[in-house]
Task: structure prediction
Amino acid sequence: MKPEARWIVPLQILVGACFGAIGGGISYLILDAIWRHVPRSFINGGLIYSLLICISFLLCSAAAFVATGEGVRLIGKLKGKTYSRKQLYRGAFLGTSAAVALFSLVNVNWDDIVMRFAPPFSWIVRLVELVCLIISLPFRMLLWMKVPPVLIFALAAPIGALVVEKFNSIRPIDGKGEGSRR
Result:
């Protein structure tokens, strides 16, 4: 591997995270400015207010995913690699979804869950607890070091985008499941 080639992936992650944070932030500011001009009596709680919040969340998330994918794609294009936009956007979504799932394992109250089961099933729950503890250990360490969760989410999107793109570049040969690179 060339010395300059080994910096392309960390650079893609960094630029993708910055683009995603900027894209999500700009879309939030635009939507906030739009919703400030909607009459308060129109959105004073209820179903319409909930729908507007949902639409805002989806638009901000979509803007962040697209900006992340474009940041990763830009750095790849500068180095002569081409990436599928669809796969990058899908990976950015899956990366942040995986981060949310792993964060949800951090604050599980296992003692309450174990109390609800009899001994044979409680042993299985303890085994699941151990597996979840091992899986969420990197996130526990990052939170213990006081790394902001927003930073972890910003980094999870480009990492997910690159992982999905890498997995989709492997194609089976002769239907035997063996992979080869394009």
About this structure: Helices lie at 8-36, 46-78, 85-104, 110-115, 119-144, 149-168. The radius of gyration is 21 Å. The first helix runs from residue 8 to 36. The beta strands are 170-173, 178-181.
